[in-house]
Amino acid sequence: MRAAIIRDYNADLSLESVPDPVCEADGVVLKTLACGICRSDWHGWVGEHPKVKPGAIPGHEYCGEVVEAGPLSKWRVGDRVIAPFILSCGACPECQSGQTTICKNQRVPGFGEPGAYAEYVSAPHAHNLARLPDSLTPALAAGLGCRVTTAWHALTGRAAVQAGEWLAVHGTGGIGLSVLLIGRALGARVIVVDVVPERLEHALSLGAEAAIDARGGDAAAQIVALTQGGAHVSVEALGIEATTNGSIECLRPLGRHVQVGLPVGHTARMEINMNAVYMKQLALYGTRGMPSWRYPSLLSMIETGRIDVRPIVARQVGLSQASAELRMFNAPMPPGVAVITDFAA
């Protein structure tokens, strides 16, 4: 099969012919229909993720058609499915309690496993997969792969955002846009923060109540003033120190901070304003991914039109264009995300 491989960090991916993946007993092999290009992939591509080494095939936001099914899998050849990026074992105490995103035996394509920047991908622990609704195109399904699912769980499974609450979003990439769209659907009043005017304007067009350019000064203080006391919930969607502190400092007393951005490599340890946490008695939540059993609640919101994910996907590209898309993460990016939909180009 054709695949894009990291041979050197910060260098163009190598397009190569490699052996097709092997189907595991409890898994499936998918013909990749689409795969999102995510900032998490960029962390691996630049060498800052400990599980991504030269020789890795990136890609964890994917959907596909089953071409081979293991004997312990419930799926059949021809089924079209969408995959969470965390493939949990289903048997450990964490999985049995429903907390599958902290499964100790989890497997993540693209991070220690061959990913979906390839014509085919192996998906072990196939009980995690969900059927791809006919109303959802592969490009949109891949676009929501990690971003929308993570945002959905962050807001509903962790912070429990309520209608009428102020919701601040720091960073308007794929995750930030997803938080905006879902927050609006849940009835929250959303404020976005970014440094790219085009992205701020895009967020306003999608229903953000206010957009703050962080280059203009203390974004946290602006949010506190605008909301007359601070946001009830704030989501950090970049994984860097400045926006993490901005998220914490913009909250009102008893507010909830949700860390969605990935702190890894040089950002794995940060200097955090713990005095603000203490004095305002804040709650800090970490979140990563979404338990697979929550797919029905999210997909029903999308299928009934309560959440429109179409604004998230800005570009559909060929596999050979993935390097250029990864390189774009080195600087402030235009709105929307890219999805690989042509694995021959």
UniProtKB/TrEMBL annotation:
Keyword Metal-binding: yes
UniProt cross-references to Pfam families, sorted A to Z: ADH_N, ADH_zinc_N
InterPro entries: ADH-like_C (IPR013149), ADH-like_N (IPR013154), ADH_Zn_CS (IPR002328), ER (IPR020843), GroES-like_sf (IPR011032), NAD(P)-bd_dom_sf (IPR036291), Zn_alcohol_dh (IPR050129)
Lineage: Bacteria, Pseudomonadati, Pseudomonadota, Alphaproteobacteria, Rhodobacterales
The protein's name in its UniProt record: Zinc-dependent alcohol dehydrogenase family protein
Record domain Enoyl reductase (ER): where: 10-340
Family: Belongs to the zinc-containing alcohol dehydrogenase family.
Coiled coil: none
Keyword tags: Metal-binding, Oxidoreductase, Zinc
CDD domains associated with the record: Zn_ADH6
Source taxon at top rank: Bacteria
Keyword rRNA processing set for record: no
Known cofactor(s): Zn(2+)
